[in-house]
Design goal:
The complex is a heterodimer of chains A (261) and B (260). Helix content of chain A is 74%, strand content 2%. Chain A is built from 13 helices and two strands, in the order αααααααααββαααα. A two-stranded antiparallel sheet of chain A has the order 1-2. In chain A, strand 1 and strand 2 form a beta hairpin. The longest helix of chain A has 29 residues. Chain B starts with a strand and ends with a helix. Helices cover 41% and strands 26% of the residues of chain B. Chain B has a domain of 180 residues: Rossmann fold (3-Layer(aba) Sandwich), CATH 3.40.50.300. Chain B contains eight helices and nine strands. Chain B is globular. In chain B, helix 3 packs across helix 4, helix 3 crosses helix 5 and helix 4 crosses helix 5. In chain B, strand 8 and strand 9 form a beta hairpin. Chain B has a six-stranded mixed sheet, with helices on both faces. In chain B, strands 2-1-4 form a three-stranded antiparallel sheet, covered by helices on one side. Classes of the chains: A mainly alpha (261), B alpha/beta (260). At the A-B interface, helix 2 and helix 6 of A face helix 3 of B.
């Protein structure tokens, strides 16, 4: 595959992204960790002080899902705008266009991996222990990357022809955040709660391809156990489905990117 | 052996005036789908037939807007042909604009790595060539300086040097020789002669008839997307120059009659 031959191009672009992002910042790459910690603090304040709930270790509960969500969201959004932002390169250099979304994803993967390692380290040092869940993390990160890549490639293609995509995406991501069990768990939705005659739990699981993955991250990090196999297989199904669609659509359309930009 | 085969290639672009890129525009366009007048096809190249042999140097000449750059971009694979086929045998690098892919915040060394990888090389390969490239571009003392502090001549020299460090078998160039001072131009020409001596295939778009005559084995002349002439550089340059002279004479006489 030609993307593999150009993997160093994706790496170079990712390094450029990282360098630009943390240029002129005081704490540099630590932002990838500090940012979710701040969000965790805010959610913890809201859900333990303002709206008390029974969840033990609420900060860990939120952070275990929030880290994965942050990665997913940043990866999808940046991949979606990668081709339109890379117009100058697309018009002048004949490299495989998939390098652009790949670089965007890689950029986020680097910062996410750093943040995740530090969080795991902190949890270990806090004496919570790690459990077998940690063994599943490489698989889960891989699946999350596949899902983000597929969706990102799809949206990047759409954004070439319809710039509304990137505008719409911020609203869409905001809604998606609340439709994903991040600041709540599926189990905390009352089972009798119905949406369109269907149990709300089932509906979220059915329409949200990210839901099983986020739940699996929570089981691995927060519950410290190997995630349920049905969650993993559902996640794999969703990830491979989107990756296949995204790669196919992007691959077909990318021949015409130069003249459409 | 043929290494570039352009077979009956036509390239039509769709020029879109005030294209729908917003939600409302999109829906308005959906409504008047059948009378969307703002899409105008523009044929940049018409039934081009061309083959380039391995080790050959081909010059492409013609007025601005004649389709020269479009042809290079088609061969490079940046555009896809509307009809016809293009086959390329061997590794290819296209220099369409010097400094494309350079980033002003990166140092000379980082830009060498970035640009080289976009041309399909690995970082390790490029890292080995850094000193050679810096020497050719005469930027050694500034290798670790962000290129936003470079003069435009330094940037252009670096870009040319990076591009020339490629081991590609086929090299496409779009008017990139007109950079740098005279000494550097002489070195560029020497470099191109060396590439030719190495039996690499060159396709040059140039407005410099001297370069075409001196460097190329063969030339083609494009005008408004049509292949007007093909042959030795002397013949083709002469035909192009005669045509340009005729056109200038016509414009001059039109001005003269308009003024009287």
């Amino acid at each position: 595959m030609s993307l593999w031959r150009y993997r160093d191009a994706a790496l170079s672009l990712a390094l450029l992204n990282l360098r630009l992002r943390y240029n002129n910042t005081l704490i540099g790459a630590s932002w990838s960790l500090v940012n979710p910690l701040f969000f965790t603090l805010i959610f913890t304040f809201v859900f333990t002080v303002l709206l008390p709930n029974e969840t033990p270790d609420f900060p860990v509960f939120v952070l275990s899902a929030l880290l994965a969500w942050n990665y997913f969201q940043a990866a999808v959004v940046n991949a979606a705008i990668s081709v339109t932002n890379g117009r100058g390169l697309v018009l002048k250099i004949a490299f495989p266009r998939a390098v652009l979304p790949a670089a965007a994803i890689l950029t986020e993967l680097v910062t996410f991996s750093l943040a995740l390692s530090v969080v795991i380290g902190l949890l270990y040092l806090s004496g919570r222990g790690l459990g077998t869940g940690i063994l599943a993390l490489p698989i889960l990160v891989g699946l999350l990357t596949c899902l983000a890549s597929g969706l990102g490639a799809l949206l990047a293609t759409l954004n070439v022809y319809l710039r509304d995509t990137q505008e719409f995406l911020s609203v869409f991501m905001f809604g998606w955040f609340f439709m994903t069990p991040i600041i709540y768990s599926l189990e905390s939705i009352p089972p009798e709660r119905l949406i369109l005659g269907m149990s709300a739990r089932t509906l979220i699981q059915l329409i949200n391809p990210l839901s099983p993955l986020i739940s699996a991250f929570r089981q691995a990090i927060y519950e410290r156990r190997f995630p349920d196999l049905d969650l993993i297989s559902l996640s794999a199904l969703a990830a491979l489905f989107f990756l296949a669609i995204g790669a196919r659509v992007f691959g077909r359309a990318s021949r015409y990117f130069a003249e459409s930009l | 052996m043929t290494c570039i085969e352009v077979y009956n290639v036509t390239k039509t672009f769709t020029i879109v005036r005030d294209r729908a890129r917003t939600v409302s525009g999109f829906f308005i366009d959906l409504i008047r789908f059948w009378r969307r007048l703002e899409r105008v096809p523009f044929t940049a190249l018409r039934e081009i037939q061309l083959s380039v042999a391995q080790g050959e140097a081909l010059g492409i000449i013609g007025a601005n807007g004649s389709g020269k750059s479009t042809l290079l971009k088609l061969i490079a694979g940046i555009y896809a042909p509307t009809s016809g086929t293009i086959s390329v045998r061997g590794s290819l690098v296209a220099l369409l604009e010097l400094g494309a892919g350079f980033h002003s915040e990166l140092s000379g060394r980082q830009n060498i790595l970035l640009n080289g990888t976009l041309y399909g090389h690995t970082r390790a390969e490029m890292a080995r060539r850094v000193s050679e490239i810096a020497a050719f571009a005469e930027i050694e003392p500034f290798l670790e300086t962000p290129i936003k502090y470079y003069s435009s001549g330094m940037q252009a020299r670096l870009a040319f040097a990076v591009a020339m460090a490629t081991p590609a078998e086929i090299i496409l160039m779009d008017e990139v020789l007109a950079v740098g001072d005279m000494a550097f131009q002489a070195r560029c020409l020497a470099k191109l002669r060396q590439l030719k001596a190495e039996r690499r295939t060159l396709v040059l778009v140039s407005h410099s008839m001297d370069v075409v005559r001196e460097l190329c084995d063969r030339a083609i002349w494009l005008d408004h997307g049509c292949l007007m002439a093909e042959g030795t550089p002397e013949e083709v340059v002469a035909a192009y120059q005669a045509h340009s002279a005729r056109q200038n004479a016509q414009i001059a006489s039109a001005h003269a009659s308009g003024a009287s």
